[in-house]
Design goal:
The protein has about 140 residues and is mostly helical. It contains three helices and no strands. The chain is about 70% helix and about 0% strand.
Length: about 140
């Protein structure tokens, strides 16, 4: 397992921990205060220390580039869905004319977590495909 895969596993585990933490805290603290669980994703900041001396070859850079593009597009979709979903629920469904500004921060956090989680998952899937092709 190379450094990129180790960083990807760290991203997947911290992403799952954030979602589980948020779901566990909502009944006790409410949806706005439970967003503090997203702070667990800060552990992913230590990913830069994993495999700092390792060199990436052309295949590794290609996988990282594809994974970053996939994560960015998923994050963009999550952000648009979050903004338009908030508008639809508040305005069209509930008839409210204003939405709390605190929701924008939550949508931004969710977009970041979607980016890193999708990127990590794509890295693991692409390395898995390359391993299967090498063994065949």
């Amino acid at each position: 397992m190379n450094a990129e895969q180790k960083r990807a596993w760290l991203g997947v585990v911290t992403g799952i921990a954030c979602v589980v933490g948020y779901v566990a805290l909502v009944p006790f603290l409410g949806p706005m205060a439970a967003t503090g669980a997203f702070g667990l994703y800060g552990i992913n900041g230590f990913a830069g220390f994993i495999g700092r001396k390792e060199r990436a070859d052309e295949r590794d850079r290609s996988i990282a580039r594809r994974a970053t593009l996939g994560g960015a597009m998923a994050s963009y979709m999550a952000f648009i869905l979050g903004c338009m979903g908030t508008w639809f629920i508040a305005f069209a469904w509930l008839g409210k004319e204003q939405v709390s500004v605190h929701l924008l921060g939550t949508i931004t956090f969710v977009g970041g977590i979607v980016f890193y989680s999708v990127r990590s998952t794509v890295v693991l899937v692409l390395y898995g495909r390359h391993m299967e092709a090498d063994n065949a």
